[in-house]
Specification:
five-stranded parallel β-sheet, alpha/beta, two-stranded antiparallel sheet, 7 strands
Length: about 210
Amino acid sequence: EVIFPRKVKDVDFELLVKLVMVLLTNPDDKSEDIYQPVQGCVLIFLPGISEISRMIRYISACFTPSSKVSRLVLLPLHSNLSPAEQAKVFVTYKDPSVVKVICATNIAEASVTIPDVTVVIDSCKVKAMYYDVSTQSNTLLTGMAGRFNLVQRKGRAGRVRAGRCYKLITQHTYENIIQQQMPPEILRISLDSIILQCYAMKEVFI
């Protein structure tokens, strides 16, 4: 039996933007490791394309150049981008005043490795297809990512130098709500269309 993801709140964009601004501007009155300035690249995991667009728009509106960061490069990363657009996330900048911020879907969990990522900010949410019996169709739903997914995301930071990961969830949510792993797609969606496609291909090649 597949358990549908419980309804989750929208991504807390205000908290995300505040965290990014703190990391980029490095307030003088903060000396803890959590507030150390960013060097390299910040990778933000978001559930979908619409959330990526909103996040980029919010950061662009809030960011003002400081003495610590003279240039901010904001990039999206998802499967609908062309290869040329996806290739932009691999560009590295020798100038330490340049900070690259990538807003990505779960495509960056394992399919894509960006070597200069030093900070991961994880919304801990993901969009996945589920079969809805009431509508008899596959539906794209937003839910909490599995713990295995969170481990994969955390591992994106610090591949070439020390890295940090910020998960935007409480300890209670991690321990009591998030599943160990998400159900595989074959158990989440209707296989009718795939079976019909296979049958059609059989007819063509016979």
